[in-house]
């Protein structure tokens, strides 16, 4: 694997795909749990995993450089179900990009098993992958100044759910009442890297 | 007035509750947060007899004024400033007893940016993920103080330290930041790397707890295209396509898509947090330890 040094005590490990990043993240977590890796943060992203707060960055760098990307772990663990009403203001635009009817967007989206590739942007905001590449959509040309909390949205290869109201340029396809972030809950984040997710249709724009 | 609390009379430009932050949650998008000048926060805690992780107040440029509802020991450190109790000058950088109902005024920074106010017992707001810090990027922790805010205080622990005035570094006239190149130095031209580590920058007034923003020479890229989002560390120097470099401070985003040209040594970040707008800044390349 290609390992880049980051400051004095962090490493950025580059891999070829989101699936490889997930496999590496799972392996690094396993090693931290068994005590053979001392890292404060293990942060996956699109094509990388960041290791921060390492006690022996040079040693870990040598080891990972020589290592192959680990095999993908089996998909285990519960599937988090997120109820969605497919009523987003960008549903028609997304349907046009996909070349399908609006109701087909809901059917395709709700028929896909997603996985949280990584988090960022806001606490509890997950970048979910699972849709085939032909369903990638561009960001909106003009970002919205306020996207409501609970908006289910698409951008590039990702699906995300806004944990709270914030500015955003993603295409909004629906809304959920699921609570993505609650700091009084353990864990606070409903979605964390590796979580399997299914969206369960709870109606569509135009439904009574 | 035996209530263990502190009333905020004048919140100042931006005063927040800070402790050592909430590291360990970056993978769910939670910034580390915490006092920007961590040694100053630790010092004022020690001066008032608090454990090092107790929550203190972090002011920004204009100080703040507080009225304790119980007798407390306080200490003010970080940015040097005038400190008074009911109008009478008291020492900065030393433990000071403040009677219940008296007015503690922490004046405007005479140098530097952020003063730290330690109070015996510590500020006891409800912790979020193990920290009482206000995170201005994600909104976790208590909101910034407002006039009239009442903050609960903990029980005092050890007796305050016996010192007259504790030595603290003076804010530098020129900020020198030691930086290790990478991880994305290869996204910049060799000329950009030379410029970055030789020519002067200046602290922008747009700086905040998220990042120290700098004005200065542009850093041309050697490649076009977008970097996929990747994890970010404290001290990372991110270079957006428009505008100057940004040195990430405690409330920085956990992932980002602009290339990081280098990472500032953690030991230099407290001084960066005290660099007022307009301060000249120089980056110097160092070898990784």
Automatic annotation (TrEMBL), chain A:
Boundaries of every Carboxyltransferase domain copy: 1-191
Keyword Hydrolase: yes
Keyword line: ATP-binding, Hydrolase, Nucleotide-binding
A single GO molecular function term of this UniProt record: hydrolase activity
Protein name: Allophanate hydrolase subunit 1
Organism ancestry: Bacteria, Bacillati, Actinomycetota, Actinomycetes, Kitasatosporales
TrEMBL record, chain B:
Highest taxon listed in the record's lineage: Bacteria
Transmembrane residue ranges: none
Any Pfam family matching the protein: CT_A_B
Protein name listed in UniProt: Biotin-dependent carboxyltransferase family protein
UniProt cross-references to InterPro entries, sorted A to Z: CT_A_B (IPR003778), Cyclophilin-like_dom_sf (IPR029000), PxpC (IPR052708)
GO terms, molecular function: ATP binding; hydrolase activity
NCBIfam families documented for this protein: urea_amlyse_rel
Residue span(s) of domain Carboxyltransferase: 27-289
UniProt xrefs under PANTHER family: 5-OXOPROLINASE SUBUNIT C (PTHR43309)
Keywords tagged on the record: ATP-binding, Hydrolase, Nucleotide-binding
